[in-house]
TrEMBL record:
Pfam hit, one: Acetyltransf_6
NCBIfam families (UniProt xref): pepcterm_femAB
UniProt domain BioF2-like acetyltransferase: residue ranges: 168-301
The protein's name: Peptidoglycan bridge formation protein FemAB
């Protein structure tokens, strides 16, 4: 009986768990930051430490990568970047140029500490709004956007099972690409990728990212970033830059030449990525973000993927409304038509100066 009482006394007198302390990541923290991200179920590829150098080097934006630490252990992280633009406003976002973001933590105390730190930083910077790009809702009382969804699906362990899991009409498009004799190649640079990507987004009337940005992605993430290019008789048909994280593959940037439509180049490209991922033992195909009501949204549904809502939440600081930079908005239609008529070379020069402010 006395031993039970002694244990009870020890528990009552035990010191309370230390409150998490929020710190800024520096170069010496990157390895343990990424170790936490790898292990934390809430974290995504876009919580990796490398995004700090990507955003600062490629776009020149100021970043704050903060972590909550207690007992010498990282318990949560948040990646923040500030964008100042006369055209598109002043924002603090987690994380611009990334589809997922927000706070990733393994306990509520760490999450709350990081949330308070991010909100205080937003007030100090006097931004229009603080934005979290969450997979799950966190702030029911904040304004939010329902513009985006993501598409994620299990990769089956057998290649043929994955082929048969594709709906019949879409499967026919994949087989069309196979019959056309399309070939898949892995590139070590972004030259062919950038040609296909820039041609594709110009056709859509969208400003292009710089070639340097994609080179920085490959340099920063190494084996976890991959370029796959589809060719036909040596001609570039389509290309995709994908990220690998844990047991997932995420095709993130892609595009096709005009000929791609005739030979089902994009259909074949995504199938090849799925097939190769299956052979590597990858478990999840993350088709990424799309806007509701777009061709990309319909394309992904045609593969049998179900849309999952993304929860982009905003704490309004100086702004009174959530920003509206949706290219589907009528106010952007004239700009899109002008951009489509612009020579590709000029669009590739001007585009990076615009897109860096969009985030």
């Amino acid at each position: 009986m006395s031993s039970i009482i002694e244990v009870a006394v020890e528990r009552r007198n035990a010191p309370a768990a230390a409150a998490p302390v929020v710190k800024l990541m520096d170069a010496g923290d990157a390895a343990r930051w990424d170790a936490f991200v790898e292990a934390c179920p809430e974290a995504t590829f876009f919580h990796r430490a490398g995004w700090q150098s990507v955003i600062e080097r490629a776009f020149g934006h100021k970043t704050w990568f903060m972590y909550a630490e207690a007992g010498g252990r990282i318990q949560g992280v948040v990646c923040l970047a500030e964008i100042k633009s006369r055209l598109f406003g002043h924002t603090l976002s987690s994380l611009p140029f990334c589809v997922y973001g927000g706070i990733a933590a393994d306990n509520d105390a760490a999450r709350e500490a990081l949330d308070k730190a991010a909100q205080e930083l937003a007030r100090q910077l006097d931004v229009g709004q603080l934005e979290y790009r969450n997979l799950q809702p966190r702030h029911a009382d904040w304004p939010s956007k329902s513009l985006y969804v993501t598409f994620r699906k299990e990769i089956l362990p057998d290649v043929e099972q994955n082929m048969l899991a594709i709906p019949k009409k879409q499967r026919a498009m994949v087989r069309k690409g196979i019959k056309a004799g399309l070939q898949s190649e892995i590139d070590t640079d972004v030259e062919r990728f950038f040609r296909a990507y820039s041609t594709s987004v110009h056709r859509l009337g969208t400003p292009v990212f710089s070639k340097r940005y994609f080179s920085i992605l490959l340099e920063t993430f190494g084996k976890d970033a991959e370029v796959q290019t589809i060719t036909l008789d040596g001609r570039i048909i389509a290309s995709v830059l994908s990220f690998y994280f844990r047991d997932e593959v995420l095709p993130y940037y892609g595009g096709g030449m005009a000929e791609a439509r005739d030979v089902a180049g994009n259909d074949f490209m995504y199938w090849e990525l799925m097939r190769r991922a299956c052979e590597k033992g990858v478990k999840v195909f993350d088709f990424g973000r799309s806007k509701v009501g777009t061709g990309a949204f319909d394309f992904k549904k045609n593969w049998g993927f179900a849309p999952q809502p993304l929860h982009y939440e905003y704490q309004l600081v100086r702004s009174t409304t959530v920003p509206d930079n949706n290219p589907l908005s009528p106010k952007f239609q004239l700009f899109i038509k002008i951009w489509q008529r612009m020579p590709l070379g000029l669009a590739n020069v001007l585009g990076p100066h615009i897109v860096k402010s969009l985030g």
